[in-house]
Amino acid sequence: xxxxxxxxxDNHVIVINKRASDIVQGDKTGDxxxxxxxxxxxxxxxxxxxxxxxxxxxxxxxxxxxAVVFARTSKxxxxxxxxxREKETNKVYWAIVESLPENPEGKLVxxxxxxENQNKSYVSKSSVVGAKESKLHYxxxxxxxxxxxxxxxxxxxxxxxxxxxxxxxxxxxxGDVKYGAKxxxxxxxxxxxxxxxxFNHPTTKELLQFVAPCPKDAIWQFFEKIIG
Length: 228
What we know:
about 230 residues
């Protein structure tokens, strides 16, 4: 992690603009996680002896980029966890897709079931054991000659929800070959970005709102420039 990824920092929280290569929680690769990097950064910056606390509040898939918050205290973690659990936060995503949706904006409601072996979610019938109702709102906000930018707000937070639901209507996220994209992105990312994040500060209760700059490749920069 580099300091230029830090969007906001105080004694209780730190907000990071996650790169597609970063992982929020450890996985089978054994690669270092963002909390590991944050702990090293805090330890060095503040010359802290002993262990440094960094609590995971929410997660983004590894190939996804954008705003993610971590707690610097156990009390902050508890209070932020409650906000995310009670859906008192606001998360807005941008997704670059290969095809136009049938309608320029709308609400998607599906039942999703996770396949643990494949680490993938599938649209299924409500009667299937383990299927969870999944809801999101999308809006077309820009187009290039080949791709289209959707803004997405989640009502629920399911495994691979945006990826699976957009794929179910034929709007495959650029680079997301797991869910039907034509080809991978060179850097292994998918074009899904947690653009905005809002929550109440765990101690002051002040509303904090953040915008994560888009990745620096050409397609993202094109859309960020025309949207502003």
